[in-house]
Design goal:
Helix content is 21%, strand content 14%. With 154 residues, the protein is α+β, with helices and mostly antiparallel strands. It has a domain of 91 residues: Roll (Nuclear Transport Factor 2, Chain: A). The protein has a six-stranded mixed sheet, covered by helices on one side. InterPro entries: N1-like, Ribonuclease/ribotoxin.
Length: 154
Amino acid sequence: MLTGVRRSIPLLALLITLLGACAGPSRPQGSGATTGATSAPGTASSTRAPQPARDPDSGLRWIARSDLPREAGPVLTRIAQGGPFRSARDGVTFANREGILPRAARGTYREYTVPTPGASDRGARRIVCAGAPRSTAECYYTADHYASFRRIQP
């Protein structure tokens, strides 16, 4: 019996060490500390920007227009102008079958192609906008053919 206990002590110590490492540094409750940059032991503190806020309506992360691919800017301009568009599929109804965007009546969303340099087809990049055909007030960007979306900041 004593031999079994002696064998399990190093395993227990390892488990406690791993759990402590996963928990991360502790902060006193009510200290008002906010989530900020962290640094690895022995390194200078990082100055990473905080995670972008999420759109309160969709829960999706925001993306600034300046962070979109350069090909997206002219697409947003053409959406606001009502065209002309490069693809015959631009402006068609997006059905939101994936259910990632907020639920809305059929016909609420329209999709537009963001050209992908070097692609021989439409590629995977799209902008999807809600509302009237020329509205860019509520638009979303996907770089992976609807697997994920980010809300474009108006």
